[in-house]
Please model this.
Amino acid sequence: MTEKPISRRTLITGAAVAAGGALLTSLPGEAQQTTASAAPGGASRVVAGDPTKSPGAPTTAVGTRSPFVTPARSPIGEITGSSLTPLQAFSGTITPADLHFTRNHAGTPTIDPAKHTLLIHGLVDRPLELTLADLKRFPATTHTYFVECAGNGRAAYRTPKPEMTPQQIDGMVSNSEWTGVSLATLFREAGVKSKADWFLAEGGDACLMARSIPVRKAREDALVAYAQNGEPLRPEQGFPIRLLLPGWEGNVNVKWLRRIKLGTDPFMTRWETAKYSDPLPGGKVRWMSFEMDAKSIITSPAYPERLSGQGWWPITGLAWSGRGRITRVDVSTDGGKQWIGAEILSPLTSKAMIRFQHMWQWKGGESLLMSRAVDETGYVQPTMAQLRAVRGPGTDYHFNPIRAWRVAADGSVTFEANT
Model:
């Protein structure tokens, strides 16, 4: 094949384009975008020029957020502990997968999906050992559900501080679209015996998290999930598979699921004796308290926001219930003396978060903003005083009191715990 000769005109044009490209990348000016370390605390500050004066960035294999948008979980570096989701940074109801809260007891394992299996045995006719590929051959189902740690809200109950953000108060809850196989389908495939009332779910991490679950939950809405928000589970959320028990406390939604054993009674693991049992007044204990009660939190205005002036401001937040649908969210701007029904901005989906909003005219005085959720069972989110009266100061799980934010006359907003 004969190559086409390069003409003098082509050579000159190409050189001019190359020189122009060099000028665009080397000359200072308003068309450039640079990064400087001049932000408070040493964080990077993005300095942007005029985006209409030069081409933008090329396509990439994985998209990233704008450099002006920097939500993050906190704290980081926990092997045994939690990392909280920044509730105040979100719009709508879905939590981005990379910002979903985490609660680990032995770190996040790295698991090869080609080698991982799920064993279903015990009181069954046909024991099964299923690979991820096997699970994906069953009919899939997709639903949106929240997951909430049983200890969510502990710090706000035990050691509240005015300078607490929504993330620090209730950041161990997230809401996602989950895809997987109905556990009821797998139980039918295995032939679960009629006398099996409980099953043990065991995870494949270093702590071997194991919890006893009533078989009735499998027949209702339980999933073996392998995808979240349209992609495979993130490792922190149980990759390659996890148990998903809609509306039930987070620790029973066993991640890195590797084994299910059917039996007649609870298996009494250390996770339901030494932990996840709740002391009550009078020497009693709440045990197997699976469902998460109705709850809400205003995510804006909230600390560390400051209202910049009088006028109309949106009060917005999230509400959810492990017992079904949220039917109403009320908002108060005077510390609970008067309540007004908020506007619901999202579908009333069972066991999923909803977004609420109330437009409020701030006239410059001190105000106390509150929200309370009501679910389809008629349950009304309690005040802190009501919860303390029933559960006592030593309670350790299922914290769902009404949250309040104090707006000062200067517009500053702080957390108010004792309402």
About this structure: Residues 306 and 412 are 4 Å apart (CA to CA). The chain has two domains: 97-283, 295-416. Residues 1-43 have pLDDT under 50 and may be disordered. The helical segments are 8-26, 132-135, 154-158, 166-170, 183-190, 215-220, 384-391.
